[in-house]
Amino acid sequence: MNNKGVSPVIGVMLMLVATVILAAIVSSYSGTFAPEEKTPTASFSAEASYNKGYIKLDHISGDPIYKSAIKIRVETSRPATSGYVNMSNVSFTPDPTYLKPGDTAYIYFTKSSVYGERAVFTGPDIRLSVAVGDKFRITVIDSDTGNAIWSSELILNP
Question: Is the model more confident about 25 or about 105?
Answer without folding.
Answer: 105
